[in-house]
Amino acid sequence: MEYYLQLVISGLVVGSIYSLVALGFVIIYKATKVVNFAQGELVMVGAFACFSLTVQFGLPFWVSFPMTLAFSTLLGMAIERLTLRPLIGEPTISVIMVTIGLSSVLKSLVQLCWGTQIRVFPQVLPADPVVVAGLPVSPVYVAAFLLSILLFAAFSLFFKYSRLGIAMRATAFDQAASASMGISIKSIFAMSWCVAAMVSAVGGVILGNINGINSQLGHLGLKVFPAVILGGLDSLAGAALGGLLIGVLENVCDGVAKDVLGLGGFKDVAAFIVLVMVLMLKPYGLFGTRQIERV
Amino acid sequence: MSAPCGLFFTSYAQESALFPSRFLKASMALFFVALVVLPPWMNSYHVSVLCLINIAVIGAVSLNLLTGSCGQISLGHGAFVGVGAYTAGVLAAKGVPFLLALPASGLLAALAGMLFGLPSLRLKGIYLAISTLAAQLILEYVFLHWESVTGGSNGLAVMPPEIFGYAFDNDLKMFYLTLAAASLCALGAANVLRSRLGRAFVSIRDHYLSAEIVGVSLFGYKLRAFGLSSFLAGVSGALWAHYTMFLSPEQFGIGLSISYLAMIIIGGMGRVAGAVYGAVFITVLPEALNALSASAEAWMPGMTSNLMALKGGVFGLALILFLLFEPEGLAHRWRLIKAYWKLYPFAH
User: Which label site among A91, A117, A193, B271 has the fewest CB atoms less than 10 Å from its CB?
Assistant: First the structure.
């Protein structure tokens, strides 16, 4: 029993990172209807930027972290301006493929700059475990979980109350109407990429503090798809819940497969089996807008 | 005057002919003869690249039927190729003759494609892309973990193919075999496109609602598109298995699916010629980079150590640049060039 509880807890931590990445994905999808296959690579680039500033330039963590966020914001803006804006109105497959092309460009840039081996962040938090629900848990895990919740709360408030957040929601709801009300659609599109790159970078930094990072980190982006489909492609709450659910589900399924069936590596595929089932039964997810045309 | 200058169709049969002009017929024949005659004078490295091109052409043509003509995005094509490859490998190990194993691998791949296509058929656009992505990852997992059949991460050795006791055991022989298969597949796909089936595919791509109103059964034709496309993908995989003689799960990863999609985008969606151009481009690109980096090594040491990363980057960059500046692909550019010279001194 304790084994499964442990699985659930580590699933929640990984899931909270999925949630962050899914948040970036959903923000881009909501505002621009672009499906971003490079979301995992944004996580990776953010993580490596922070790693480079802290370790290679020797800056303290509280300086390098905001600098990483600023860098990611610029990166998101550049990506939107250079590759996505010319493709507005093009068919789905072009937009998907341009983000896939982007992901392999980002990956190769990271490999050229930092190589392929695993890099470890310096210890920011104490190593002594904290006791949660009777189980010892590393403080990094707790911090990761709390930071994700904090970010989600911040973004919920941002979308609910700030002018920019309301403008972004309005654009997502009806582009033509919001444009005629004086909202600059172009800057909203750029903004959504900035925000997505930023939250992904936060996810990357957290991951770097837990596991270390390497150039394969982008694979994490694939896990976003089950999470957002489960939660609903255009729902922030769905991203949060979907990420956590997928994190826990894949960890527990992996544990069960190892324990009961003796199958290794089930983690990589469990989320996608769930994904196929969700697509068959409830394709718009838990909180998504029902707008899928069935054949 | 025996014939008018240019193409003036007076019947539907003329318009839907595979090679509408005598010049085109002659130049295609010439090209084919050159393909058959020249390879024995090439070195084996070049012949091996040509083999890879032939195999890639089959895969690209098959994906182009599904994605380019029928509008169904598939991110799982690499895995369907893998199903064909593993089937061929396992059947060859059991002593099934190649001529039987080849269609059998196609059929099993078609089965896998239709099975994973089945839930996908209710979905469109991005949802379809994601569900085929799931198919890709699930099949990859099966390749890796069904060790009693696929050999898992240790891989599976495959013998060169044999037809009536004649073994295709070097690059040159393999080239002729794959050339024959690729030509048949390309011709077959071109013929499918001008048949009732192909027109139904195109109508679904262009406007699914209108297609349904004129009596095209969406479910049936989408399923057929998935089946036909994965059948050809399986054939391509079977040839790949026999050519590389070694199968391991990572060959059929998401990267392969993406490179097939890149082929049809760079070549031109919905056209058989486009798939061929794209297959040539994407297969030659890494080889060209190899050659370039080898010659650049002299003045830029350390170039070859970064080659892997460089290949991915150049691939991604080519994909992005094509999507931004040449979204209709090489086939379209080639048509524009031809049109330019047809009217040469006059702009219109």
Answer: A117
The beta-carbon neighbor of A108 closest among B126, B141, B312 is B312
From chain A, the residues in CB contact with B131 under 8 A are 275-276, 279
Interface check B73 vs A, CB under 8 A: yes
At residue A258 the predicted structure's pLDDT band, cuts being 50, 70 and 90, is confident
The residue among B237, B223, B243, B224 whose CA lies nearest residue B79 is: B237
| Statement: residue B86 has pLDDT above 60 | yes
Which three-class secondary structure string do you get for B260-324?
HHHHHHHHCCCCHHHHHHHHHHHHHHHHHHHHHHHHHCCCCCCCHHHHHHHHHHHHHHHHHHHHH
Distance of alpha carbon A42 from alpha carbon B25, whole angstroms: 50
Question: For residues A207 and A47, is the Cβ–Cβ distance under 8 A?
Answer: yes
The more confident residue out of A141 and B248 is B248
Tokens of B207: 């406007």
The overall longest dimension of chain B from CA atoms, in Å, is 70
Comparing CA positions, the residue from B186, B180, B185, B187 lying closest to residue B163 is B180
pTM: 0.90
Q: Which residues of B touch A90 (CB under 8 A)?
A: 323, 327
Contact B319, A101 (CB under 8 A): yes
Contacts for A258-262: CB closer than 8 Å, 24+ residues apart? A259/A3
Higher pLDDT, B32 or B301: B32
Q: B5 pLDDT exceeds 80?
A: no
| Binary contact (B134, A222; C-beta < 8 A) | no
State the complex-level ipTM: 0.87
Write down all domains in chain B, each with its CATH number in brackets: 43-343 (1.10.3470)
pLDDT at site B164 = 82
Extents of the domains making up chain A? 1-222
Contact A68, A205 (CB under 8 A): yes
**Token representation of residue B188:** 């077959």
Pair of tokens at residue A188: 């909203």
Q: Using CA atoms, how far apart are residues A175 and A172, in angstroms rounded to an integer?
A: 6
As a whole number, the mean pLDDT across chain A is 85
- pLDDT tens track for B298-338: 777 666 677 777 888 999 999 999 999 988 888 888 888 88
User: Is the CB of residue A98 less than 8 Å away from at least one CB of chain B?
Assistant: yes
Question: What is the pLDDT at residue B303?
Answer: 67
Hey, which residues does A213 pair with through a beta bridge?
Answer: A119
Question: Among the listed ranges A74-88, A275-289, B41-55, B245-259, which one has the minimum average pLDDT value?
Answer: A275-289
Pairing of strands A135-137, B156-157: unpaired
Question: Beta-carbon neighbour count of residue A34 at 10 Å?
Answer: 23
- The answer to whether residues B254 and B175 touch, using CB atoms and an 8 Å cutoff, is no
CA distances to A76, A80, A81, A105, B78 from A191, in Å: 8, 9, 11, 22, 35
Cβ distance of A294 and B327 shorter than 8 Å: no
Q: What is the DSSP string of B2-26?
A: -S-SS----SHHHHT-SS-SHHHHH
Which amino acid is it at B207?
A: H
